[in-house]
Amino acid sequence: MPQDDLHHRDPRQLAPATQRNREPILAVLRQVLPHQGLVLEVASGSGEHAVHFAGAFPDLSFQPSDPDPAALASIDAWARTSTLPNLRPAIRLDTMAPRWPVTQADAILCINMIHISPWAATEGLIRHAAELLPAGGPLYLYGPYRQHDVPLAASNAVFDDSLRRRNPKWGLRELEAVAELARAAGFGEPQVTPMPANNLSVVFRKL
Protein backbone atom coordinates (compact mmCIF):
# COMPACT_ATOMS: atom_id res chain seq x y z
CA MET A 1 0.00 0.00 0.00
CA PRO A 2 1.42 3.45 -0.89
CA GLN A 3 2.56 5.58 2.02
CA ASP A 4 -0.03 8.27 1.21
CA ASP A 5 -2.84 5.70 1.49
CA LEU A 6 -1.52 4.56 4.86
CA HIS A 7 -1.37 8.14 6.07
CA HIS A 8 -4.94 8.93 5.01
CA ARG A 9 -6.53 5.61 5.92
CA ASP A 10 -9.52 6.07 8.20
CA PRO A 11 -8.66 4.41 11.55
CA ARG A 12 -12.30 4.17 12.60
CA GLN A 13 -13.42 0.60 13.20
CA LEU A 14 -16.99 -0.60 12.77
CA ALA A 15 -18.53 -3.09 15.19
CA PRO A 16 -21.86 -4.27 13.71
CA ALA A 17 -23.13 -5.39 17.12
CA THR A 18 -22.85 -1.81 18.36
CA GLN A 19 -25.53 -0.65 15.97
CA ARG A 20 -27.86 -3.35 17.28
CA ASN A 21 -27.26 -3.10 21.02
CA ARG A 22 -26.50 0.55 21.74
CA GLU A 23 -30.12 1.66 22.14
CA PRO A 24 -31.13 -1.26 24.44
CA ILE A 25 -28.00 -0.63 26.50
CA LEU A 26 -28.73 3.09 26.61
CA ALA A 27 -32.22 2.40 27.95
CA VAL A 28 -30.68 0.51 30.89
CA LEU A 29 -27.96 3.10 31.45
CA ARG A 30 -30.59 5.83 31.81
CA GLN A 31 -31.71 3.99 34.95
CA VAL A 32 -28.19 3.28 36.21
CA LEU A 33 -25.77 6.15 35.62
CA PRO A 34 -25.44 9.11 38.00
CA HIS A 35 -26.56 12.54 36.88
CA GLN A 36 -23.03 13.95 36.98
CA GLY A 37 -19.47 12.73 37.26
CA LEU A 38 -16.96 10.59 35.37
CA VAL A 39 -17.89 7.40 33.54
CA LEU A 40 -14.96 5.12 32.75
CA GLU A 41 -15.55 2.75 29.85
CA VAL A 42 -13.25 -0.27 29.97
CA ALA A 43 -12.49 -2.13 26.72
CA SER A 44 -14.11 0.52 24.53
CA GLY A 45 -13.21 -1.30 21.32
CA SER A 46 -14.15 0.71 18.24
CA GLY A 47 -15.30 3.70 20.31
CA GLU A 48 -18.80 3.79 18.86
CA HIS A 49 -20.46 3.16 22.20
CA ALA A 50 -18.46 5.93 23.87
CA VAL A 51 -19.59 8.47 21.28
CA HIS A 52 -23.21 7.36 21.46
CA PHE A 53 -23.39 7.42 25.25
CA ALA A 54 -21.49 10.70 25.61
CA GLY A 55 -23.99 12.28 23.25
CA ALA A 56 -26.88 10.94 25.30
CA PHE A 57 -25.50 12.12 28.67
CA PRO A 58 -24.09 15.63 28.18
CA ASP A 59 -23.74 16.21 31.94
CA LEU A 60 -21.43 13.22 32.37
CA SER A 61 -17.77 13.02 31.35
CA PHE A 62 -16.83 9.84 29.48
CA GLN A 63 -13.36 8.32 29.60
CA PRO A 64 -12.92 5.58 26.98
CA SER A 65 -10.06 3.10 27.26
CA ASP A 66 -8.62 -0.01 25.65
CA PRO A 67 -5.34 -1.97 25.72
CA ASP A 68 -5.12 -2.19 21.90
CA PRO A 69 -3.40 0.66 19.96
CA ALA A 70 -5.66 0.18 16.92
CA ALA A 71 -8.72 0.48 19.14
CA LEU A 72 -7.34 3.63 20.76
CA ALA A 73 -6.84 5.16 17.31
CA SER A 74 -10.39 4.20 16.34
CA ILE A 75 -11.87 5.66 19.52
CA ASP A 76 -10.16 8.99 19.01
CA ALA A 77 -11.08 9.06 15.32
CA TRP A 78 -14.75 8.57 16.18
CA ALA A 79 -14.42 11.27 18.84
CA ARG A 80 -13.08 13.73 16.27
CA THR A 81 -16.18 13.25 14.14
CA SER A 82 -18.46 13.92 17.09
CA THR A 83 -16.78 16.97 18.68
CA LEU A 84 -18.42 16.14 22.01
CA PRO A 85 -16.93 18.27 24.82
CA ASN A 86 -17.65 15.59 27.45
CA LEU A 87 -15.75 12.79 25.64
CA ARG A 88 -12.13 12.55 26.78
CA PRO A 89 -9.22 11.25 24.68
CA ALA A 90 -8.84 7.48 24.90
CA ILE A 91 -6.31 6.03 27.32
CA ARG A 92 -4.50 2.70 27.30
CA LEU A 93 -5.86 0.48 30.05
CA ASP A 94 -5.24 -3.22 30.62
CA THR A 95 -7.54 -4.61 33.31
CA MET A 96 -4.83 -7.06 34.40
CA ALA A 97 -2.27 -4.33 35.07
CA PRO A 98 -1.39 -3.79 38.75
CA ARG A 99 -2.22 -0.09 38.42
CA TRP A 100 -4.71 1.72 36.24
CA PRO A 101 -4.16 5.21 34.75
CA VAL A 102 -7.37 6.35 36.48
CA THR A 103 -7.72 7.01 40.20
CA GLN A 104 -11.47 7.65 40.50
CA ALA A 105 -14.70 7.04 38.59
CA ASP A 106 -18.37 7.56 39.42
CA ALA A 107 -19.46 4.70 37.16
CA ILE A 108 -17.68 2.02 35.13
CA LEU A 109 -18.93 0.37 31.94
CA CYS A 110 -17.54 -2.81 30.39
CA ILE A 111 -19.32 -4.14 27.30
CA ASN A 112 -18.53 -7.46 25.63
CA MET A 113 -15.13 -7.99 27.25
CA ILE A 114 -15.51 -10.68 29.90
CA HIS A 115 -16.09 -13.55 27.46
CA ILE A 116 -13.34 -12.43 25.05
CA SER A 117 -10.51 -12.27 27.58
CA PRO A 118 -8.86 -14.48 30.21
CA TRP A 119 -10.56 -14.85 33.59
CA ALA A 120 -7.71 -12.79 35.04
CA ALA A 121 -9.06 -9.81 33.08
CA THR A 122 -12.38 -10.09 34.91
CA GLU A 123 -10.59 -10.41 38.23
CA GLY A 124 -8.62 -7.23 37.49
CA LEU A 125 -11.72 -5.38 36.32
CA ILE A 126 -13.67 -6.07 39.49
CA ARG A 127 -10.72 -5.51 41.82
CA HIS A 128 -9.90 -2.11 40.35
CA ALA A 129 -13.57 -1.11 40.02
CA ALA A 130 -13.94 -1.66 43.77
CA GLU A 131 -10.99 0.66 44.35
CA LEU A 132 -12.21 3.42 42.00
CA LEU A 133 -15.95 3.58 42.64
CA PRO A 134 -17.63 5.40 45.55
CA ALA A 135 -20.30 3.76 47.66
CA GLY A 136 -23.32 3.21 45.44
CA GLY A 137 -21.28 3.59 42.26
CA PRO A 138 -22.35 1.21 39.48
CA LEU A 139 -20.25 -1.30 37.59
CA TYR A 140 -22.19 -2.09 34.41
CA LEU A 141 -21.40 -5.28 32.49
CA TYR A 142 -22.97 -6.41 29.21
CA GLY A 143 -22.66 -9.61 27.26
CA PRO A 144 -23.67 -13.29 27.15
CA TYR A 145 -23.39 -15.44 30.27
CA ARG A 146 -24.03 -18.94 31.50
CA GLN A 147 -26.51 -19.13 34.39
CA HIS A 148 -27.24 -21.95 36.81
CA ASP A 149 -30.66 -23.50 36.18
CA VAL A 150 -31.11 -21.54 32.92
CA PRO A 151 -30.64 -23.50 29.69
CA LEU A 152 -27.95 -22.04 27.46
CA ALA A 153 -29.40 -20.67 24.23
CA ALA A 154 -28.29 -22.58 21.16
CA SER A 155 -26.73 -19.46 19.62
CA ASN A 156 -24.75 -18.80 22.80
CA ALA A 157 -23.55 -22.41 22.89
CA VAL A 158 -22.23 -22.08 19.34
CA PHE A 159 -20.64 -18.74 20.20
CA ASP A 160 -19.01 -20.17 23.31
CA ASP A 161 -17.55 -23.05 21.34
CA SER A 162 -16.16 -20.70 18.70
CA LEU A 163 -14.53 -18.52 21.37
CA ARG A 164 -12.87 -21.48 23.08
CA ARG A 165 -11.56 -22.71 19.74
CA ARG A 166 -9.98 -19.32 19.14
CA ASN A 167 -8.49 -19.15 22.62
CA PRO A 168 -8.92 -21.76 25.39
CA LYS A 169 -8.83 -18.93 27.97
CA TRP A 170 -11.93 -17.30 26.45
CA GLY A 171 -15.58 -18.29 26.72
CA LEU A 172 -18.91 -17.45 28.33
CA ARG A 173 -18.56 -17.03 32.10
CA GLU A 174 -20.87 -18.27 34.80
CA LEU A 175 -22.82 -15.25 36.03
CA GLU A 176 -22.74 -16.73 39.53
CA ALA A 177 -18.93 -16.85 39.45
CA VAL A 178 -18.75 -13.20 38.42
CA ALA A 179 -21.23 -12.28 41.16
CA GLU A 180 -19.17 -14.15 43.77
CA LEU A 181 -16.06 -12.29 42.65
CA ALA A 182 -17.94 -9.00 42.95
CA ARG A 183 -19.29 -9.82 46.40
CA ALA A 184 -15.79 -10.62 47.64
CA ALA A 185 -14.61 -7.23 46.35
CA GLY A 186 -17.34 -5.29 48.18
CA PHE A 187 -20.22 -5.12 45.69
CA GLY A 188 -23.86 -5.94 46.29
CA GLU A 189 -26.00 -8.48 44.49
CA PRO A 190 -26.32 -8.06 40.71
CA GLN A 191 -29.27 -6.39 39.06
CA VAL A 192 -29.82 -8.43 35.89
CA THR A 193 -31.79 -7.28 32.83
CA PRO A 194 -32.37 -9.63 29.87
CA MET A 195 -31.27 -8.03 26.60
CA PRO A 196 -31.73 -8.83 22.90
CA ALA A 197 -29.78 -11.68 21.27
CA ASN A 198 -29.49 -13.63 24.55
CA ASN A 199 -27.30 -11.05 26.28
CA LEU A 200 -27.60 -9.63 29.79
CA SER A 201 -27.10 -6.26 31.41
CA VAL A 202 -25.56 -6.85 34.83
CA VAL A 203 -25.20 -4.02 37.34
CA PHE A 204 -23.20 -4.27 40.54
CA ARG A 205 -23.18 -1.40 43.02
CA LYS A 206 -20.34 -0.72 45.44
CA LEU A 207 -21.42 -1.19 49.04
From TrEMBL:
Pfam families: DUF938. Residues 1-20 are annotated as: Disordered. Residues 1-12 have a biased composition (Basic and acidic residues). InterPro entries: DUF938 (IPR010342), SAM-dependent_MTases_sf (IPR029063). This is SAM-dependent methyltransferase.
